[in-house]
Amino acid sequence: MHGYFAVRSALRARLGAIALVAPLMCFVLFFFFWPLATMMQAAVTDGTVRGVLPETAAALSDWDGESGPTAAMQAALIADLRAPAQQMDFGDAVRRLNSEISGFRSLMSRTATAVRGAPEGSTLTLVGIDQRWGDPKYWQAIRRAMPLYTDRNLLAAVDLTRDARGHIAQAEGGASANRQILTRTFVISAAVTLLCAAIGLPYAMIIAASGGWVRTLLLIAVLLPLWTSLLVRTAAWFILLQNEGIINDTLIALGLTDAPVQLIFNRTGVVIAMTHVLLPFMVLPIYSGLLAIPNNLLPAAASLGATRLQAFRHVLLPLAFPSLMSGCLLVFMVALGYYITPALVGGAEEQMISSVIAFFATGTANWGMAGALGFILLAVTTLLYFVYGRLSRSPTMMIN
Amino acid sequence: MPSQASQALRATQIVFGSAVVFFLLAPVVAILPLAFNSSIFLNYPIESFSSRWFVELSENETWRRSIVNSLIIGAGATILSTVLGTLAALGLRSAWLPFSSTIRTVFLMPMVIPAVVLGVGLQMLYVRTGLSSTYLGVIIAHAVLCVPFVVVSVSGSLNGMDPWIERAAASLGAPPARVFRFVTLPTIMPGLVTGMVFAFATSLDEVVLTLFVAGPNQRTLARQMFSSIRENISPAVAAAAFVMIVGTLSLAALVGYIRWRRSKAVSPKPQA
């Protein structure tokens, strides 16, 4: 009997815990994972042509892919064009086909007009409307656009494409600049990370070595910006860095320069502002890492005859290294996805991957490309997060 | 007698430390006086002090609306994330919960996923579900970002709590709801308030998700500042920044005060 009650109360405790976690779990599944899945799905699906030309899709599956179009294919395409399609969907499908072979747009609209204009029951041949339909190349293009799942967007996100035979190839020069933007995102993030490390490590060491009100002041200087709105800090840098801003006024007053130095809308401004915003994420992990180091190690090293530099190099640095690495990872990870600071302080040459994603999503409604670039950013960030999670035992460092 | 080398080191430390403190604080401090500048340019020198930009903030329809929206959305997101996050933190505490560390990691994920990625996904989802350009949609989007802060800070409070107090209350006959109301809740209150403050501050500062999911009617203060800096920068931005800084700092002070009172109440009194 006693065992029975123990099992029952354990079961009840387990169900109780699950019931408490369940609401948030559902919330996160619905409004966090589902949106991410939707975005990834948009990256790999391409249903526009299939949706507008369903019968052609069926007919194409029996085609050998080399010879001229069969009668069934032609009849299917005519039937599809006759069926009333949403104007917007039709436009999307034509745009998609035109991206395979330029000139497809005019071919399709000409054919659609002819088909829809022909009286009911009259016999039409596509080749009669336009000779190009006799060329297998156009049918191959339709077939390439048919699969529901495609790697087209993902390839395009890194400036690759598939050639007529389906092999992966470099996209034509100037077709897209995604690889350049990805490189730029990594370069800016790396520069910010290095700068944060160069400032953050010595600063954290000074905090750890100080005491009393000095330590409090130094810590407040890190925490106060963290508490201040990101937008406020970016606005502040916007004001300081502008050509008529305080920094330039000071430089001119000191006689260091005659004309204002361009600090805003370029790489310098973005790196300065992002370093300011992300520096606390570097200082805090290193600082708490340093606190865990027993403070008698350096005197011990000194008593054994080590110089300060040797003690730093061989005792402190190896011990502080893991927290330095987790600070670097954290800063790099957050920097990769930055949007607001480059958008406000940077020029066209500083726009990072997030800006491009936002452009595709809100500017041109190209969900496939937005999804594909988002997919890349998400994958890299998640990977870094797991590495970070292994390096640092408290991934919640930033709020305590 | 300190050696010359260590004196030089000390001087370097002081110079470097002060420079970093200046770098960290100066921008935030520099923007504050500009809110009181009478000039129409958002720049120094300050010609004369005036409160015209605060008047602009409260009288201009766009700015006033955005402040009201920020308060509505911030309150909504705070309530939603606090309820969900506190329940989850209580569940996560239990030793009986399977996969609890994985679940915790999942709950913290929104903190690290780039906002633009989540924004694109939410926009696509909202178009399908009819949540785009609604207050509820923006509140939900913000709450996703706020939840990790609540989970972390409530969990922190719960970890510091002696579970025997609750067991004692239960053994004395208190039903679970009563135990929660009179034992658990008062104990975790500081963590709860900290979480709420973080949640509200997160919502107040949110721009990216708002860009994707909000319509013109849900424009928040942060969103309005963003477009104002981008399009036609005016000193109203500095006034808005002033309001935000004062707002978040008073919230931070509230948290500090609660923690301080707490530490005073908890720390053992010296023996008389």
UniProtKB/TrEMBL annotation, chain A:
It is a multi-pass membrane protein. Pfam families: BPD_transp_1. GO terms for biological process: transmembrane transport. InterPro entries: MetI-like, MetI-like_sf. Residues 182-388 form the ABC transmembrane type-1 domain. The keyword Cell membrane applies. It is found in: Cell membrane. Its main location: membrane. The chain crosses the membrane at residues 15-34, 186-211, 217-239, 246-265, 271-294, 315-340, 367-388. Keywords: Cell membrane, Membrane, Transmembrane, Transmembrane helix, Transport. One of its GO terms (cellular component) is plasma membrane. It comes from the Bacteria. Belongs to the binding-protein-dependent transport system permease family. CysTW subfamily. PANTHER family: ABC TRANSPORTER PERMEASE PROTEIN, INNER MEMBRANE ABC TRANSPORTER PERMEASE PROTEIN YDCU-RELATED-RELATED. This is Putative spermidine/putrescine transport system permease protein.
From TrEMBL, chain B:
Signal peptide: none annotated. Its main location: membrane. The chain crosses the membrane at residues 12-36, 67-93, 105-127, 133-158, 179-201, 233-258. This is Putative spermidine/putrescine transport system permease protein. InterPro entries: MetI-like, MetI-like_sf. It is a multi-pass membrane protein. Residues 67-255 form the ABC transmembrane type-1 domain. CDD domains: TM_PBP2. Belongs to the binding-protein-dependent transport system permease family. GO terms for cellular component: plasma membrane. It is found in: Cell inner membrane; Cell membrane. It comes from the Bacteria.
